[in-house]
Design a protein that fits this description.
Radius of gyration of chain A: 13 Å
Distance between the termini of chain A: 36 Å
Shape of chain A: globular
Number of strands of chain B: 11
Order of helices and strands of chain B: EEEEEEEEEEE
Radius of gyration of chain B: 13 Å
Largest sheet of chain A: 6 strands, mixed
Structural class of chain A: mainly beta
Helix content of chain B: under 10%
Number of helices of chain A: 0
Largest interface: A-B, 24 and 21 residues
Structural class of chain B: mainly beta
Shape of chain B: globular
Oligomer: heterodimer
Order of helices and strands of chain A: EEEEEEEEE
Helix content of chain A: under 10%
Number of helices of chain B: 0
């Protein structure tokens, strides 16, 4: 079935820009959703349909998706953004939800 | 306010059974497709199963197909996951989550219920 790949970790200094990739074969043809999960908490949707930001999510969070990589971008990173981030796609070929392995964002 | 509250987790022996529930409030459950997602200790998110709003269509991960059954009672605003023939590797925190369709984003999540399978 379809596979999406994320780097295990990304580190960024406060105030800088973090980019978290999610790779998959022609993922640009799929809708990608992104979730943030802080320790001990349930996941929270931060980006839907590649680039839509749900109500209450800061404008610093944005997304893009093209060809074989979707990217979650966090501008002006804050200490509070430190969390695990997961990408997710619906694989219509198998009728399965697919999660990426998750990326731990560390704010230096 | 949308709320999802899971219950039913606990300790089960390998080969045993458990039934998880997810009580919904603050919205009309039948308008939402519902999903179970699990997270083993220290691991990432793993999709388990999804059911459409009407309950007529279900989807399962290969790892649980034939052992787990998802169902819902919209009149009781409750989602269920019947877990049979449990394995040690089913040990995880189980979340219920909702979205407006079975292939749309999951915009509401519960806090999870812990399932431990051990002898």
């Amino acid at each position: 079935s379809y596979v999406v790949t994320q780097p295990p970790s990304v580190s960024v200094a406060p105030g800088k820009t973090a980019r978290i990739p999610c790779g998959g074969n022609n993922i640009g043809n799929k809708d990608v959703h992104w979730y943030q999960q802080k320790p001990g908490q349930a996941p929270v949707l931060v980006i839907s349909y590649d680039s839509d930001r749900p109500s209450g999510i800061p404008e610093r969070f944005s997304g893009s998706n093209s060809e074989n990589t979707a990217t979650l971008t966090i501008n002006r990173v804050e200490a509070g953004d430190e969390a695990d981030y997961y990408c997710q796609v619906w694989d219509s070929g198998s009728d399965h939800w697919i999660f990426g392995g998750g990326t731990k964002l560390t704010v230096l | 306010e949308v709320q999802l509250l899971e219950s039913g987790g606990g300790l089960a022996q390998p080969g045993g059974s458990l039934r998880l529930s997810c009580a919904a409030s603050g919205f009309t459950l039948r308008d939402y497709a519902m999903t179970w997602v699990r997270q083993a200790p220290g691991k990432g998110l793993e999709w388990v199963s999804t059911i459409t709003g009407s309950g007529t269509v279900t989807y399962y991960a290969d790892s649980v197909k034939g052992r787990f059954t998802i169902s819902r009672d919209n009149s009781k605003s409750t989602l269920y996951l019947q877990m049979n023939t449990l394995r040690v590797e089913d040990t995880a925190l189980y979340y219920c989550a909702g979205g407006y369709s079975s292939s749309s984003e999951m915009d509401s999540w519960g806090q999870g219920t812990l399932v431990t399978v051990s002898s």
